[in-house]
Write a structure and sequence with these properties.
The protein is α/β, with parallel strands linked by helices. Helix content is about 35%, strand content about 15%. Helix 4 runs parallel beside helix 6 (about 180-195) and helix 7 crosses helix 8 (about 240-255). The longest helix is centred in the middle third of the chain and has 18 residues, at about 140-160.
Length: about 270
């Protein structure tokens, strides 16, 4: 299902489905489609904007090659291309696993797409298994949730031109639930996103963040985009889960204010 008129939420939220802000290519070792194939798929899906995004870590050296390859592609009329690198949140300090020489902004990538691939621990990233072991050993759910939100806020404050990828996808992996976050934590998180200009993606693949978190972002005036997190060109711009998330969030916000989540490229 693509972002057709029939499928889209009504109002400005529906325009989110005209973008895909998280699309992987063969520069990522777990993706199968080339940059050219992804660009063609985005155009065929009727998208206006696509963020070409690939995985990096501190040891990555190919970012200049990636940018050169993107610049060499032919871009169909009506489609805007922006770039990103996806890196994981490392620990409670908010550190992100990016190359030391990474350029973000003019002459570099347009955004750092930060993923919650592991739990941001106090002594480094905790795997889901290690996090569950700590919870079983006495770490309370509330303390773990506080740690995640505080780490999220620190990484937003410390990472210019950031986009949060599939945020809160780590929670079910460690036996926690997004519903446990509660209004106070979501408010602090959403306000930090708005204050720092951090983009938050509503992710098709992982179906997150959920409606309550999206509603908190809308109330705070934070920037929201849609993404498929595609690793195959045939998935680019194809949304099945995101429309329902956006509709549910809009219903929660209700008549509080006119949603203003239509975003251009950064």
């Amino acid at each position: 299902m693509s972002g057709t008129e029939a499928d889209r939420p009504t109002g400005p939220l529906g325009d989110l489905l005209l973008g895909d802000f998280h699309v992987h290519s063969t520069f990522s070792d777990d993706a199968r489609s080339t940059l050219a194939e992804n660009i063609a798929a985005a155009s065929a899906a009727g998208l206006r904007t696509v963020r070409l995004t690939d995985h990096v870590r501190a040891s990555t050296t190919w970012v200049p090659e990636f940018l050169t390859a993107v610049a060499a592609e032919r871009i169909p009329a009506g489609l805007a291309i922006v770039t990103g690198v996806e890196a994981k949140l490392l620990d409670a300090s908010g550190a992100v696993d990016t190359p030391a020489d990474l350029v973000v902004g003019p002459g570099g990538v347009d955004a750092v797409v930060i993923g919650d691939h592991q739990f941001p621990g106090t002594d480094g990233p905790w795997s889901p298994r290690a996090t569950r072991e700590r919870l079983d050993a006495g770490l309370s759910d509330d303390d773990a949730l506080d740690l995640l939100i505080e780490s999220s806020i620190r990484t937003m404050r410390g990472t210019p031109h950031a986009q949060l990828a599939h945020w809160f996808s780590i929670l079910p992996k460690v036996g926690l639930d997004e519903a446990q976050l509660g209004d106070e934590r979501l408010l602090a998180w959403a306000q930090a996103a708005a204050a720092t200009g951090t983009i938050v993606e509503v992710n098709e693949k992982w179906e997150c963040p959920g409606p309550a978190a999206i509603a908190a972002l809308l109330r705070a005036g934070a920037r929201i985009v849609a993404s498929t997190d595609s690793h195959l060109a045939t998935d680019v711009g194809r949304y099945q889960r995101v429309p329902a998330l956006l509709d549910a969030a809009a219903a929660l916000v209700g008549g509080e204010r006119e949603p203003t989540s239509r975003e251009g490229a950064r």
